[in-house]
Amino acid sequence: MGATLSNLLHQTAFFNLTWGNYVMIAVALVFLYLAIKHDFEPLLLVPIAFGMLLVNIYPDVIAAPTVDALGMEHAGGLFYYFYKLDEASILPSLIFMGVGAMTDFGPLIANPISFIMGAAAQLGIYIAYFMAIALGFNGKAAAAISIIGGADGPTSIFLAGKLGQTTLMGPIAVAAYSYMSLVPIIQPPVMKMFTTEKDRKIKMEQLRPVSKLEKILFPIIITIVVCMILPTTAPLVGMLMLGNLFRECGVVKQLTETASNALMYIVVILLGTSVGASTSAEAFLNADTLKIVVLGLVAFIFGTAGGVWLGQLLKVLTHGKINPLIGSAGVSAVPMAARVSQKVGSEADPTNFLLMHAMGPNVAGVIGTAVAAGTLMAIYGVV
Hints:
A hairpin with a 5-residue loop joins strand 1 and strand 2 (73-74). This protein is globular. It has 383 residues and is mostly helical. The chain has helices at 2-11, 19-37, 42-57, 78-87, 90-102, 106-110, 114-120, 123-134, 139-146, 153-162, 166-181, 183-193, 197-200, 212-229, 234-249, 253-277, 281-284, 287-317, 336-348, 355-379, and strands at residues 66-67, 73-74. It is 71% helix and 1% strand.
């Protein structure tokens, strides 16, 4: 009887966890607190944090399949199979289809100058890339880390998988999603640093109406142009534009609803829990992870600043018709970054409505981050 009780006692997690596991459990609880109490991207942080919690209590939840000495195969942990869908770029691509089905590209079509504002906000990616190399990462690892600056979790996972940086995928994804959820905290100080109160009060003219034909042609033309130039972006840009075509063509309502609701949320559960489960203490608590977290923050700050800097230039060139705040929405955290532009603008003038103007650079940022990822893949010969 005593031996049985001793065996049961030693099977509990208390006798198998390291101090690192307890640290990661604490981090998971903080993420859950931020998501539930403060509503910081709960759709992402809740599954990520819970996956983090589970893997640090029971590491085998993401264990790979094994073959014992007798040649018998043993299945891997549940999250192992979810994670394989991340590595194969299946889940990130499906997320993009859902984003496309939920997003109105009208503000971007109505104000094409938004494209260059979205491009300017990718500045952080390239700064982080060279900084990562300076910190000792190899080229592919630096490329995978730098994409955090686009504030786009699916693209970060997609690029890490394509570049073969699966060992860094967990820290990269967690950093990307964490900074996405912290957009309302990180961005405003940067935006205010590079704008005056007078800048923030600038009111922009109402956007022109966009016809249904324009909205239907836009995803088709973007797919052809971008994918012809950078074919490796086809899984991301193609799925983004397919989802948007579902939305705008008006003849596949069922597909639009499925892509933007049921399928989207199923994929978020699978992706979030598997990403969280990749953050075991052994994989996460090391010097490289700390470097990745810092580089991601630097990339995000410079991405925000890059959009605002170009907004300042456009303000001068248009004689004050562009509010530089909307440039900060060029990072691709849709639609949160656009909401932050609106919030900071309304703090200076409650009658200032920038949301729809900011959605242009915001949507452009999604495309821009995918293009940046495709450019990095092309540099390293990934097909």
